[in-house]
Design brief:
The complex is a heterodimer of chains A (254) and B (407). Chain A is α/β, with parallel strands linked by helices and 254 residues long. Chain A is built from 10 helices and 10 strands. Chain A has 2 domains: 171 residues, P-loop containing nucleotide triphosphate hydrolases (Rossmann fold), CATH 3.40.50.300; 77 residues, no CATH class. In chain A, the strands form 2 sheets. Chain A has a 6-stranded mixed sheet, sandwiched between helices. A 4-stranded antiparallel sheet of chain A has the order 2-1-4-5, covered by helices on one side. By secondary structure, chain B is mostly helical. The longest helix of chain B has 29 residues. In chain B, the strands form 2 sheets. Chain B has a two-stranded antiparallel ribbon. Chain B has one domain. The chains are: A alpha/beta (254), B mainly alpha (407). Chains A and B meet through helix 2, helix 3 and helix 4 of A and helix 10 and helix 11 of B.
Chain lengths: 254, 407
């Protein structure tokens, strides 16, 4: 393993030659992936293609056996950083199932996510200002939860929880957003809104969307990366990859 | 901001009010300054109970709020007791030795006094030298800060090792049990420097106050304990409110999610573990002078399990619940085990509460867990539970269960 540290690159995230094996099963196999600072990218692939493992590696939950993962204009390796450090560096993650703090109110959830100091000591002496409250209200309004601020997050509907989680992501102000199946459990209208939001977000930051739903990806209208057996099978526009015979065989043909 | 801390936390205000009333009532009824309706022995029981309430508060912060089921916090409590105990015992023995040597024709040198103290304290374990750990015991100024430092540093090292390795749930509980057991076994040894299983005794006598009757002393300690409990309650209410409290509850319910928000979860756990260890130690430092004696049996693993039971019965995740649980269970416990509860003759068998109390306590614990998961404290707010079809409030082991939470 050679430490690969390129000088200034045009990509925000660069994953190269990454492999990871779980109990002999090679979940990620020499995977390389790069995304620019303002780019929307869809990642598709059949079950077990390594989509979630890929996200786990980028967010620091899983350590790869080999390869490098760098982030930022002046690339910093993410491999030696903890999950929390990676999140603070600007990587935000949206889970497949909505994960919000169910015993806490919508505003508490958003306050926790708001970009601010994260160390115990600083948080202990942190007191919310009018500016923080305004920002929380603004975020809640943005996802249609303005009337639900004092409600416990656990009471929200599945779709509302998805929106709350998206608002929490926005509150973090990440530079790279990893979004796992955002459309799951959403109504048709909500899907439309989600697509619009993701496209809008990608104007100012990098957004990686993992999704099964082809219709949804078509509406994102962006570059698509197809994963298969832990590595990239094809990359390009949706029309380009759907014409690829290998892609048809492993994914679309079924 | 116009809203103060107390208006935002009405339960804290109520608690402080009730505590003040209770303290005033006891002071007026006790022997020391009042009409003498409450015997001194019971004042001591009440004073000790207040200290137990404080350690229960600490347990509630670490378990009820942060979801870390530590079964070792009574070790920190006892360590705090040992640290004050060393000073009390040294100072008291020094007074006796000086008095005894006062009659000798040549005034004793400082070394002779120190040697006399060492022989007095360690004669019982066959030693005559003061061990290293007693280096500071001669001075309250040097010894009393150790009440915070020794348990604090121990908690910091233990917590750092455990949390860094991401030991969670049952494994962490077992590890804390192992810690308290190891500490107890170490202290049981005569050469540990703390008088082995004899422990430290005579702690009820404050140096320089030999003339003061125990009736006065007991009420002073009672008042100090009440003040300490009030201060502890305010501190922990402050810590558990605001964004910090929100982060703690987030750790309890879903720590991985909080990591992805950028929070150094291990740092938070370490902070809370150490803080609560120090609060427990201060509680112990005031408890043992009222008990008069401390020995390694106080660090038995069961003591820390009882602590968890108090908090569970009182209702975890509510500070007042912890206080109620500790007060009710420990007072009932001393009533039943003190031989005051009348035995029940069944003809073929007599129920002796001294033997059956633990069974009753166990039963109460099971009943509370099954039928009143929010504990006695939960009876006060009468909020409904959320309807979650049995799902708990987060994926972690310590997460609130459906019936524990408020809608």
């Amino acid at each position: 393993m050679t430490p690969f540290a390129p000088a200034r690159t045009t990509s925000l995230l660069e994953v190269s030659g990454v492999s990871v094996t779980f109990d002999g099963f090679r979940a990620i196999n020499n995977l390389s992936f790069a995304i620019g600072p303002q780019e929307l990218r869809a990642v598709i692939g059949p079950n077990g293609a390594g989509k979630t493992t890929f996200m786990d590696i980028v967010t620091g939950k899983t350590r790869p056996d080999e390869g490098t993962v760098t982030f930022g204009e002046v690339p910093r390796s993410l491999l030696r950083m903890s999950e929390a450090q990676i999140a603070r560096a600007g990587v935000g993650r949206k889970f497949q199932r909505p994960t919000v703090f169910e015993d806490q109110s919508v505003s508490e959830n958003l306050m926790l996510a708001l970009k601010a100091a994260r160390t115990p000591w600083r948080v202990l002496f942190w007191r919310e200002t009018a500016k923080d409250r305004a920002r929380v209200a603004e975020l809640a309004a943005q996802v249609g939860l303005a009337d639900h601020l004092p409600r416990k997050a656990g009471e929200l509907s599945h779709g509302q929880k998805q929106w709350l989680e998206i608002a929490m992501l926005l509150a973090q102000e990440p530079r790279l957003l990893l979004v796992d199946e955002p459309a799951a459990g959403m109504s048709f209208l909500e899907r439309e809104q989600t697509t619009a939001l993701l496209v809008e977000l990608a104007k100012t930051r990098a957004v990686v969307v993992v999704e099964h739903d082809m219709e949804f990806i078509r509406r994102l209208n962006c570059k698509v990366t197809v994963l298969h057996e832990g590595s990239v099978l094809a990359e390009g526009s949706l029309d380009h990859v759907t014409k690829n015979p290998q892609v048809i065989e492993v994914y679309l043909g079924r | 901001m116009t809203r103060t801390f107390l208006t935002r936390n009405p339960s804290t205000l109520w608690f402080l009010l009730l505590l003040a009333l209770f303290t005033l009532g006891v002071t007026l009824l006790a022997e020391g300054f009042g009409i003498g309706l409450i015997p001194t022995a019971f004042v001591k029981v009440l004073g000790k109970t207040l200290c137990l309430c404080l350690v229960a508060l600490a347990m509630d912060l670490i378990w009820g709020y942060t979801g870390i089921l530590s079964l070792g916090h009574m070790a920190f409590f006892a360590l705090g007791g040992y640290m004050t105990g060393m000073w009390l015992m040294y100072a008291r023995t020094e007074e006796i030795v000086v008095q005894a040597l006062a009659g000798s024709p040549i005034p004793p040198t400082l070394e002779e006094v120190a040697q006399g103290v060492a022989t007095q304290i360690f004669g019982v374990v066959g030693g005559s030298d003061l061990p290293m750990v007693w280096s500071f015991a001669y001075s309250a100024f040097l010894q009393l800060p150790l009440v915070l430092i020794v348990p604090g540093v121990l908690a910091l090292i233990f917590g750092w090792l455990a949390f860094r390795a991401r030991v969670n749930g049952v494994y962490l509980s077992i590890l804390t049990q192992a810690m308290t057991l190891a500490l107890a076994l170490y202290l049981f040894q005569n050469d540990s420097g703390l008088r082995g299983n004899n422990g430290l005794s005579g702690l009820q006598n404050l140096p320089g106050l030999a003339e003061m009757p125990q009736s006065t002393l007991s009420i002073l300690f009672f008042l100090a304990s009440a003040l300490l409990l009030a201060a502890g309650y305010l501190l922990l209410a402050w810590v558990s409110s605001g964004k910090f409290g929100s982060a703690l509850r987030a750790i309890r319910d879903d720590e991985q999610r909080l990591r992805f928000l950028g929070y150094p979860v291990e740092g938070y756990k370490l902070f809370v573990f150490t803080l609560t260890a120090m609060v427990a130690a201060v509680a112990g430092a005031f408890y043992y002078p009222q008990a008069g004696i401390i020995n390694p049996a106080e660090l038995a693993p069961i003591a820390s399990i009882y602590l968890a039971v108090w908090v569970a019965i009182g209702g975890r995740g509510r500070l007042y619940g912890a206080v109620i649980g500790a007060a009710v269970v420990s007072l009932l416990s001393s009533w039943f085990t003190g031989g005051m509860a009348p035995a029940i003759p069944l003809g073929f068998y007599t129920i002796n509460w001294v033997d059956w109390w633990t069974v009753l306590l166990g039963l109460a614990f099971v009943l509370v867990t099954l039928f009143a998961p929010r504990g006695i404290g939960g009876l006060f707010d009468r909020l409904p539970s959320p309807r979650r079809h049995g799902a708990q409030l987060g994926p972690d082991d310590g997460a609130l269960r459906e019936k524990e939470a408020d809608a």
